[in-house]
Amino acid sequence: MATESERPLGPYGQDSETEPLVRAAADLVPWLSAEAPKSRTLARLTDEVVHALAEAGLVTALAPKSRGGAQVSLGDFVGIQEELARGCGSTSWVTGVYAAALYMLSAFTDEAQDEVYATANPKSVAAFKPEGMAGPASGGYRLTGTWRFCSGQHHADWALLSSIIVIDGVPQPAQFLIPRSDWVSADDWEVTGLSGTGSATLSVHDAFVPEHRVLPLTGPPRSAALAGDPYFSIPFIPLFVTGATGTPLGLARAAVDLFGRRIHKRGITYTPYERQAEATVTHLQLDTMSMKLEQARFHAQRAVATVPLVAEDPGNVPLRVRCRADAAWATKLCQEAIAVAREGSGASAIRLKDPLSLIVSDIDALAVHSFLLHSTIAELHGRVLAGLEPGVPYL
C-alpha cells in the first residue's frame, strides 16, 4: 500500500508547465526536515534554505514570466507549499509569503516593478493591516508605523506595508513598497510554533515613499505591462488564503506518514501489543486522521476551483467568503488529524528533538492566524449564509 508521500501530487488542477516546481519542492523535503531544528533555534530560516528556495525558483513562483517568474497555477502554488511543509512548516509559510507578495507587486507601477526585479529572485514581505501613518509629501508620502508578524523579513529585500491615505477627502487603505534600508526589525519573535518564519515586528520611521511605489487598494492595478493579463486579475485575499492551505496539508501529511512508519517499530506500553500496528485503536486512529486529511484536501481543492470564479466576478461576496471558510476548515481538519497522530504516538513524541513535536507546534500556531482561524471565519461564513453583510474589510 502506498504511503501518503508516495502518492501522486495532489490533483489541484496542476499545470504541466509548472508542476516541475512542485516536484522541486518535494525533492527538498528530506533536507528541509534536517534544517528545520536550526530554523527553530534561530527564529528564522537559515541562509542556506532561503538560497535553495530561490535557486529552485520557488520564491518567484507567482511572479510574471516577463520578470523571470513562473506564473504557476494556483493548484501548483498549493502543491508547492504542501510539499515544503512536509519538511518544514516555517519554510512553507515563508515561501508562500514571498511568492504572494510578488503577486501583489504585479498591481504596482512598472517603474516600481523595475526597481524590485533589478535584483535576481527578489523577496518581499507583506503586512495587510493598516498600522502606519502616511502623510503627503512632494512626489509621494512620508510613512511611519509599526507592523507585527512580518514573516520572512530577515531575508527580504522589500516590504509591502499597509497604511491609510486620503484621496479626494476619503481615507482608504494603500500598500507602500519599502526597501530594506527603510525598516528596522525588532528581536521579538519568541514563539512556540512556526518559529522559523522570523515573523518579528517591523518598524518604519518617517521614510519617503515615491508615488510610483504606492498602490491604493480600492483602485485599479497600475501596471501597464501586465494590464489585461488574466493571470493577474485574481483578488489578492482569495489567492493568498487558498494558497495558504498547502502548509497545513503538508504538516498533516508529514504527521500521518510519521505515524504510519512508527506503528511497525514500537509497541503500546502496558498493553499486550508489541507492535502498535496490531492494535484496534491504531486502526481507528489511522482511519480518523486519514479521512480528516482527505476532507481537508477537499476544501483546499474547492477553494482552488472557486478562485477563478471570484476573478470573473470580484464583487461576489459569498464566493470570496467561501474561500476563507474552505481555508479555515482545511486548517482545522489538518490540526485535528495531527492531534490524533500525537495522541497515538506516546510520550516519546513530546521530546523537542522529535519531528512530531515541531509539526504539532507549527499547526497550532498556524491555526490561530487571523486568515485561517476557524471560529472567526465560521462566524463570517454564517453571517453571509444568513443574508447579512460580512462586516469585515478583507475578503
CATH architecture field of the largest domain: Up-down Bundle
Rounded mean pLDDT is: 94
Strand order of the largest sheet: 5-6-2-1-3-4-7
Q: What fold name stands as the CATH topology of the largest domain?
A: Butyryl-CoA Dehydrogenase, subunit A, domain 3
CATH class of the largest domain: Mainly Alpha
What's the gyration radius in Å? Answer: 21 Å
The major sheet is characterized as:
7 strands, mixed
User: Count of DSSP helices?
Assistant: 12
Q: Which geometry do the CA atoms define?
A: globular
Give the low-pLDDT segments: 1-12
- The SS-based structural class is alpha+beta
Number of domains: 3
Order of SSEs, N→C?
A: HHHHHHEEEEEEEHHHHHH
Termini separation: 41 Å
> Would you report the number of β strands?
7
CATH homologous superfamily placement of the largest domain? Butyryl-CoA Dehydrogenase, subunit A, domain 3
Beta-strand content bin:
5-15%
Helix percent band: 40-55%
